Amino acid sequence: MDSQRITACFTALSAAIPQPKTELHYRSPFELLVAVLLSAQSTDRAVNLATPSLFAAAPTPAAMVQLGEAGIKTHIRHLGLFNNKARHLYALAQLLVTRHGGEVPGDRESLEALPGVGRKTANVIMNTLFGAPTIAVDTHIFRVANRTGIAPGKTPLAVEKALLRAVPDAFRQDAHHLLILHGRYTCMARRPHCGRCPLFSCCAWPEKQQWAEHR
């Protein structure tokens, strides 16, 4: 897709989603980091149901350490992979206390050194908390980038690199949330809403007309 069409796509997305932001609930950098880690293999809605009690019991890394792995499990047991997540959260909280004075670091190397934090989570934190123009490619963004033709790629990393090359500077910081929200509510894997899609005219997906007519 050429740069003119990509700019048209993001202009349309920005008009359709004027306040692109995470749907995870949080009150501090630590709470966002915890929520993003918990969101793996879980929906944001499920995470938002689990975190109020967890954050009430452990709003800081030091409190999370005091809560302990077993205590963490009691609050997140309804989430997928809760055993692994509890182990990671406990170890992550320990490192935040011992290495970072209880603060969430803003650089990729430090973030990815934390237990349970991979490239995608680091990108979310760097973008949402620190304003970095990073793009975390999840299943929604992977689908939208490939389906529309904005940034096709066979792996999440390939799509991320393609997006960083393709997205105009003016939209770079908001691109992550614009694409994820579009994929979550309009360009869905099954039964996409092509008939009301703001990207219809710039999208390169061959099946868009079929779905635009689907009722």
Short description, anyone?
The protein starts with a helix and ends with a helix. The chain has eleven helices and no strands. The chain has helices at residues 3-16, 29-38, 44-57, 61-76, 82-100, 108-112, 119-130, 139-148, 156-166, 175-185, 208-212.
What does this structure look like?
By secondary structure, this protein is mostly helical. It has two domains: 3-20 and 135-212, Orthogonal Bundle (Endonuclease Iii, domain 2); 29-130, Orthogonal Bundle (Endonuclease III, domain 1). The chain contains eleven helices and no strands. The protein has helices at 3-16, 29-38, 44-57, 61-76, 82-100, 108-112, 119-130, 139-148, 156-166, 175-185, 208-212. α8 packs across α9 and α8 (139-148) crosses α10. The two termini are 29 Å apart.
Secondary-structure map:
Elements: H1 3-16, H2 29-38, H3 44-57, H4 61-76, H5 82-100, H6 108-112, H7 119-130, H8 139-148, H9 156-166, H10 175-185, H11 208-212
Q: State mean pLDDT (0 to 100 scale).
A: 94
Rounded to the nearest angstrom, the distance between the terminal CA atoms is 29 Å
CATH fold-type name of the largest domain: Endonuclease III, domain 1
Give the uncertain stretches in residue-range form. none
Question: What is the strand content?
Answer: under 5%
- In CATH terms, the superfamily of the largest domain is Hypothetical protein, domain 2
Count of alpha and pi helical runs: 11
Written as H for each helix and E for each strand, in order along the chain, the element string is HHHHHHHHHHH
